[in-house]
Specification:
This protein is of the alpha/beta class and 331 residues long. The protein is built from nine helices and 17 strands.
Length: 331
């Protein structure tokens, strides 16, 4: 788990900034160590500053009396790899490997009691290009939640649409790259994962947000209103068929299985612009996403001016979620 180590005189300023931008990990307490202040942050935080040092928090102090690991160990007798709990407001979502599924009810009851939640669901994965979640109610039935992240409000039904808490830094990173007056295309907008923070935290002229899943599209509309955004054009449809050509300065491809859409993204660029292409890739072929963008540009007779790749997060054992930033000029 990550934290920032701050000198006392800068601690309050840094804390307020982290909270305002949604980077502070609210599950853990701020503590003092060796005369410095240790402020917990989300795992994908990586913004450098002269006022703090990013460290690995080896002695975290959780707000709850017992954390998820302790609950699982007390019931199952051990804590397996890849067991996980995410909390959205007053609703919890668990991932449990097969070897402890038989304890799901007892674990969920412990989570409800210790985290003071209304309901707990079991995440059984996501399916198709629409990223529809398969959720099993374990305790309670509440599924409509509202959370705040990076100064943005998101409302969604976790049984109908997906929401990833692990991409907070990436959303703000892209928002920080947007130049004033840019026209943005969000090809897989979901409920507004990138659209909302990009429009809220930049001076983009317009953002066209395409979403295939009708349930996600409905919450996209709702989240645009909740955040009082202007200049967003939501589109219900398949990006392969409804994406216009020659209009965008920047294309966000936030779906991790969208390799077939790279050429369509290049076609959307207005002469020259940026594509942010996401993919889940095994470590042993880690350069595959870059090669895919390079080959797509070659097929389109376009010039790849700049290209880089960064890790967003761990996706599964031996697999990384990465993003390729590519600046492309069309012929």
């Amino acid at each position: 788990m990550k934290a920032v180590k701050v000198r006392k005189e800068f601690a309050e300023r840094v804390r307020k900034d982290l909270e305002r931008r949604g980077f502070k990990d609210r599950r853990r307490r701020i503590r003092f160590e060796d005369g410095a202040v240790i402020i917990p942050v989300v795992d994908d935080f990586s913004i450098p500053s002269p006022h703090y040092e990013i460290i690995e928090d080896l002695n975290p102090v959780f707000r709850e009396k017992r954390n998820f690991r302790e609950i699982v160990e007390s019931i199952a007798g051990f804590y397996p790899r890849y067991a996980d709990l995410k909390v959205f407001g007053d609703v919890g979502v668990m991932k449990l490997p097969a070897e402890i599924l038989k304890y799901k009810r007892e674990i969920a009851e412990g989570v409800v009691k210790n985290y003071r939640l209304d309901s707990v669901w079991l995440d059984r994965g996501r399916h198709g290009m629409e990223r529809r979640p398969e959720m099993e109610p374990v305790v309670g039935s509440k599924s409509l939640v509202e959370i705040k992240e990076n100064g943005c409000v998101f409302r969604f039904d976790l049984t109908r649409v997906m929401f990833s808490q692990g991409n907070q830094y990436e959303k703000m990173r892209v928002a920080g790259l947007v130049n004033d007056g840019e026209v943005i295309l969000d090809m897989f907008a979901g409920i507004g994962y990138f659209t909302v923070p990009v429009v809220r935290h930049s001076q983009a002229k317009k953002c066209y947000s395409i979403e295939l899943n009708p349930d996600s599209y409905r919450f996209l509309i709702e989240n645009i209103k909740l955040n009082d955004l202007e200049g967003v054009v939501p589109v219900l449809g398949d990006s392969m068929h409804v994406t216009p050509e020659n209009f965008a300065d920047r294309v966000i491809m936030g779906h991790i299985r969208c390799q077939d859409f790279i050429e369509k993204a290049i076609m959307a660029l207005d002469g020259e612009g940026w594509i942010h292409y996401h993919e889940a890739v095994p470590e042993r072929i880690i350069r595959r996403p870059v090669r895919r963008v390079e080959r797509a540009a070659e097929r389109m007779h376009a010039k790849l001016i700049e290209v880089s790749m960064r890790k967003v997060k761990n996706y599964s054992p031996g697999v990384y979620h990465v993003v390729v930033d590519a600046r492309i000029r069309k012929s």
